[in-house]
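It would be a great kindness if you could assist me with a short task in structural biology. A protein sequence and the structure tokens that stand for its backbone fold form the material at issue. I should value your view on which stretches of the chain appear to form regular backbone elements. The record follows directly beneath this note.
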Amino acid sequence: MESKELTIVIVTFKSDEKISNCLKSISREIPVLVIENSNNINFKKNIENNFHNVKCILTGENKGYSFANNVGLRLVKTKYALVLNPDTILDKNIIINHEGGSSVNKFFSFELEKNRNWHWMWSTFYYHKKYKGFLLATIITFPKLLSAIFKSLFYLIIFNKTKRDIYFCRLSGILNSMADKKSWYRPALD
């Protein structure tokens, strides 16, 4: 991976003392998005004046770590994104080799794939419900709901247990989110 394929996202909240060392440890060739959970315009000006590869976004108030990460990740234009905390110091010889799902023991990979699909669908509906309301969330996720129903039934009919289980997890995730249940699904790793 080349540095031009990477953007770094850093969420801060009154991290003036910590962020400078973090940014100094990042190559100036790599774009950095700092998402500051406040309306501190002086923080923004200071960061952007001292680090020309950094763009600072102010959320206006403390919206939380996850919200701010999502703001930053939506702005990423490169192939890869790396999320860092403001107190991270990168080693000059750092090598990033993301293995994705292959970093997990193969024995657990299917359970983790089901878990990923359940949470993906649960989160999709939950996000839209939170920011757009139940009705719009239902309209937006309805194609995914129909797809999960039909594919669960299709793979049940043709006896493809692996695909059936994955699409059943997607269906279960959407339905649990629609029923206003908490995110409860965990992989069976015993």
User: Anything to note?
Assistant: Strands lie at 6-12, 32-36, 54-58, 80-84. The first strand starts at residue 6 and ends at 12.
